[in-house]
């Protein structure tokens, strides 16, 4: 199947394929939209079972970045890159350098950061050959703390809108996934006096977080069924689906995971159950805000301040969704489109 006729093709500006014979690199860069600025989005390394799967992923993810950057108020467009391969088996400096040169060949139309399968160390290696590799160790580094801060503030916004409460003291939160984001989020929640129930498929991660005062651990298959004010998915995508949504006992879903709704129709199912959903790409934009700020004037304090905008953005999304009796993710999509399509009209 060609690229242009795929269901995930959405008028992407560029889709570039690259093979480097010496290192074995096989990679794709997709630039979705640059109306607001250069395309920004992480580099993912994954053992895709087919080229088709890799193409669909890079098309879908790059489009998502256009919406995320627009809603975060960044002057960046959306892009993404994928490396076809197993990061545990196939990754080495030669391959990462080849990826860096590939990114460089787009002359700044695409800026990269880390994503699944890539690390801050890999971005350091890439930076040797391109200035368009971000999230390096002497720059913004690991974006997870900024992401967690944004999710924490997003939970506060959802609690304000749904429960009319200013603080999280005594608010119960069930956190699914205690990785880089989940652990930091638990720290913020704990400091704010929230009551935590946590789960991870990795027992070591659970032990780390259980040291938080009063945190209760449950099995990974139980966490979405916990009766709590907030369910915070911070593991993998597609966790909100036909099996899990009927079992939720919560009033709010707000977490960091990308692509939380298994299908777009699940947003309506949540609404019909009276559950407020914080659109994933709005609440988890802290990381991209962090990476976008990298440069000589980078300041963690300024980034964290900027991430606080997620609270107001979500309050606007929730308010409009209430007035229009719509779903927050539909409202967010329209707000994002108004910003990046508006930029195109201004430029015309
Ligand atoms: P991570 O890999 O560090 O952590 C994920 C955790 O989820 C791991 O501890 C894993 O064991 C656990 N997990 C996996 N399946 C699970 C299950 N079924 N039940 C419970 N736990 C499970 O990833 P992360 O960087 O913390 O990111 C978490 C999510 O947030 C991902 O979906 C990621 O795409 C998204 N996200 C992360 C960032 C960031 O800055 N790191 C930014 C935006 C979005």
Describe what this molecule looks like in 3D.
The chain has about 350 residues and is α/β, with parallel strands linked by helices. It folds into 2 domains: about 10-60 and about 80-125, 3-Layer(aba) Sandwich (Rossmann fold), CATH 3.40.50; about 145-340, Rossmann fold. About 40% of the residues lie in helices and about 15% in strands. The chain has helices at about 50-70, 85-90, 95-105, 120-125, 145-165, 180-190, 205-210, 265-270, 280-285, 285-290, 300-305, 310-325, 330-345, and strands spanning about 15-20, 25-35, 40, 45, 75-85, 110, 170-175, 195-200, 215, 230-235, 250-255, 275. Strands 1, 2, 3, 4, 5 and 6 form a 6-stranded mixed beta sheet that branches. A 6-stranded parallel beta sheet has the order 9-8-7-10-11-12, with helices on both faces. Helix 1 links the parallel strand 4 (about 45) and strand 5 (about 75-85). Helix 5 crosses helix 6 and helix 12 (about 310-325) packs across helix 13. The longest helix is centred in the N-terminal third of the chain and has 21 residues, at about 50-70. The two termini are about 35 Å apart. The mean pLDDT is about 95. The structure holds nicotinamide-adenine-dinucleotide. Nicotinamide-adenine-dinucleotide binds near residues 201 and 220.
